Amino acid sequence: MSQLPVLDRRTLEHLGEELSDPAGALEFAQIFVRLLPQRIDAVEAAFAAGAADAAVVALLSLHVSASMVGACRLAEESSAALALIGAPSEHGPAIARLRSLALECQSALGGIIL
User: Fold this and answer.
1) Closest listed residue to residue 29, CA positions, set 44, 57, 5, 7
2) Residue 20, burial from CB neighbour count under 10 angstroms (0-12, 13-18, 19+)
3) Looking at residue 99, what is its pLDDT?
């Protein structure tokens, strides 16, 4: 298990500062939470199709957006999953980990973005 926090609230606060719009950062987090299942579905579909390029794009998209909201464990796992693209036997467990971390992240962000 990663020692990283599920959510680093400071990252989201810094995003608000960079945007000069804390409400905009919270809106981004809401969109992130709403799109999270679709992003993981895209990774799973790319894995299932053996579409390495699509898997890279989906995982990088997930990684970047998770990093921007401070979803540390999810960002770490999406990055680690890049190394598994060529290992089909690892795809199922990777998707399961991503889905589990997504639920943790949604729960943690839910307390912020109501």
Assistant:
1) 7
2) exposed
3) 97
| Tokens encoding 2 | 């990663």
Return the structure tokens found at 33.
């939470």
Cα–Cα dist 30/114, whole Å:
8
Amino acid at 21: D
pTM over 0.85: yes
Cα separation, 40 vs 102, in Å, equals 9
Q: What is the pLDDT of residues 8-49, one digit of tens each?
A: 999 999 999 999 999 999 999 999 999 999 999 999 999 999
DSSP-based three-state secondary structure for 114 = coil
